[in-house]
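User: tokens in, sequence out, please.
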């Protein structure tokens, strides 16, 4: 069935543009990411522990392995699955967590759920033979699926959990990577795949006084159920009945845990700098008949459809399979063009139409706030004034109604660009102190700060001790965003210099297919090492620069956040790295042709 466009209100563009500009400007902080504190040193208590299932202490490991994967979240699991398919068996995943899952291991806050449809988010569903129970899966199911992937691809045997990698050094004498860990391991790896994910380390608001607070506090990625009561499968936070709780941040995480906090806390203060886009969720159990009707290859088609829905433009024959808020703007553009009889449109005209549909969709979201929130003043504070996708859209049926509760107070800290400080007894905002028993930091992750901070590995050294941080000091230098000259047998996942999609798991699978090909070919050809030549790397960097796809005007007009370098100059430090301009599909074709050509062009293989 064709998915219908949404009904959106008329808008007056010029005044809205000005309103958006003012709202963005009032949140700009000249120090950008420097406004955040790293959860290291005196703040490591927010990060350096595992409240869930820390593995028991073990003896250090000293051995050799074919492929070491740093990270056991969806990036690592996906690449490992593709490697296994290619017949590469000797794989070790190393992860700080006590199991597979990555972000889905650590984020166990109440209400944790994937805001992308499960059928297009959970990777390799057909390969693993699994159908999600619901259209939008909750955290526990996703974590269990990660475990299932681990079992399905037989990844548990060599895995090292509760293990923190501290160094990665190429040892030319044995032509292996030496992986050093905090646990004292000495692992020699023929190949290493970096799969840390973009949201692996928490950040804190850089305000004075965090350490002075005498109450309880934690970050959402280390939820303290001993303190709140309940657990992530049954988030009855019954120990909060006599507690005043503050939560800082109103991003995708807060949107999901605020309803439970509002329900159980004696009083909840929500400190908001920028409101999120909130649409309804409308979750449903998976229809078994629909699931049975799916034909082989359905998931690749659906994942790609999701990508087109958020990143591209639906064409005349495209059918919006996902049909939720993510693809709304595109769906509405398609309907307008259909109604006009598909006239020829220049790129400029298309962008103008997109802008109008974007503004209309956001106006619908603001009207939705009015329809849910009783108090008009509170409703005004909850309205997002920026373009669609400037910030992560959120979908939740219980978040907005929480602000109608008498025990919940929304504190707008936009005028002061954030909370002012933390005292022994609470939070100061707008010159007023809010006394609380507990502070919950829903303040996000190190998604775009300095690379060394994000990787959390002090030494990554290739040939002759060359540090990756020095090699990339003036910008990424890669071939296809996955391999690097002077760093033999090292492979990267994530947003570096490749085909960007807002669908992370689609991108990981693209990288998984490419990485497994490179590793497989290197082994098949009896080579000990591969690495891109200096020339191939330089050529790719030039290709990237010449085709840079960053829509600077769009991102620079957005309200500050990790998508746009906190509203400062839009550079590679946005979360998306340096995307290949012609787009995800063109990149897929390019690397597909590179593989089909069969010559490992630009790679130097050594016996
Ligand atoms: P975010 O970085 O999105 O949000 C952090 C929040 O903290 C923002 O609201 C931010 O305000 C606020 N903040 C930071 N500093 C201050 C300050 N000094 N004073 C007041 N407020 C402050 O982190 P999240 O954990 O919410 O989400 C991170 C990402 O995780 C998401 O974008 C998404 O990619 C992923 N995620 C995905 C989910 C899914 O369903 N798949 C669910 C949850 C998270 P401001 O916006 O003004 O900077």
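Assistant: Sequence out:
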């Amino acid at each position: 069935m064709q998915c219908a466009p949404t009904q959106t209100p008329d808008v007056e563009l010029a005044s809205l543009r000005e309103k958006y500009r003012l709202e963005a400007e009032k949140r700009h902080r000249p120090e950008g990411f420097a406004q955040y504190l790293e959860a290291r040193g005196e703040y490591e208590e927010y990060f350096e522990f595992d409240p869930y299932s820390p593995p028991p202490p073990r003896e250090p490991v000293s051995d050799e392995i074919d492929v070491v994967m740093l990270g056991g979240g969806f990036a690592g699991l996906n690449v490992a699955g593709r490697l296994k398919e290619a017949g590469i068996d000797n794989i070790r995943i190393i992860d700080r967590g006590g199991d597979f899952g990555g972000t889905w291991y650590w984020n166990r806050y109440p209400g944790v759920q994937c805001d992308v449809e499960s059928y297009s988010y959970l990777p390799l569903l057909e390969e693993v033979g699994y159908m999600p129970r619901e259209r939008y899966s909750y955290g526990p199911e996703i974590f269990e699926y990660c475990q299932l992937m681990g079992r399905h691809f037989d990844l548990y045997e060599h895995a090292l959990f509760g293990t923190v990698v501290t160094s990665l050094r190429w040892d030319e004498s044995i032509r292996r990577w030496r992986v050093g860990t905090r646990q004292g391991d000495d692992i020699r790896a023929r190949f290493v795949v970096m799969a840390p994910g973009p949201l692996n380390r928490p950040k804190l608001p850089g305000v004075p006084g965090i350490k002075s607070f005498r109450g309880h506090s934690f970050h959402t990625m280390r939820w303290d159920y001993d303190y709140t009561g309940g657990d992530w499968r049954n988030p009855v936070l019954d120990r909060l009945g006599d507690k005043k709780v503050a939560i800082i941040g109103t991003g995708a995480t807060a949107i999901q845990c605020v309803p439970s906090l509002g329900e159980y806390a004696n009083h909840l203060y929500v400190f908001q700098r920028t409101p999120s886009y909130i649409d309804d969720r409308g979750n449903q159990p998976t229809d078994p008949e629909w699931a049975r009707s799916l034909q082989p290859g359905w998931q690749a088609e659906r994942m790609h459809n999701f990508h087109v829905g958020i990143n591209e433009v639906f064409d005349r024959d495209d059918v919006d399979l996902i049909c939720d808020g993510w693809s709304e703007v595109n769906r509405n553009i398609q309907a307008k063009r259909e109604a006009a009889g598909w006239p020829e449109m220049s790129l400029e005209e298309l962008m103008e139409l997109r802008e109008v549909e974007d503004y209309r969709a956001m106006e619908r979201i603001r009207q939705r706030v009015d329809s849910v929130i009783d108090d008009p003043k509170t409703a005004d504070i909850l309205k997002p004034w920026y373009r669609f996708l400037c910030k992560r859209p959120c979908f939740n049926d219980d978040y907005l109604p929480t602000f109608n509760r008498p025990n919940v107070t929304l504190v707008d800290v936009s005028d002061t660009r954030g909370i002012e400080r933390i005292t022994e007894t609470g939070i100061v905002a707008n010159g007023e102190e809010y006394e609380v028993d507990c502070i919950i930091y829903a303040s996000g992750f190190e998604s775009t700060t300095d690379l060394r901070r994000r990787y959390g590995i002090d030494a990554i050294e290739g040939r002759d001790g060359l540090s990756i941080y020095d090699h990339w000091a003036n910008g990424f230098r890669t071939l296809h965003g996955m391999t690097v000259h002077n760093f033999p047998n090292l492979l990267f996942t994530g947003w570096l210099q490749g085909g960007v999609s807002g669908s992370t798991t689609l991108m990981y699978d693209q990288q998984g297919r490419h990485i497994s090909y490179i590793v497989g070919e290197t082994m098949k050809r009896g080579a000990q090492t591969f690495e891109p030549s200096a020339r191939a790397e330089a050529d790719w960097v030039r290709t990237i620069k010449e085709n840079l796809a960053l829509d600077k005007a769009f991102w620079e007009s957005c309200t500050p956040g990790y998508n746009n370098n906190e509203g400062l100059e839009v550079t590679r430090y946005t979360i998306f790295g340096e995307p290949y301009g012609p787009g995800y599909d063109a990149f897929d074709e390019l690397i597909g042709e590179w593989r089909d050509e069969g010559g490992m062009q630009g790679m130097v293989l050594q016996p």
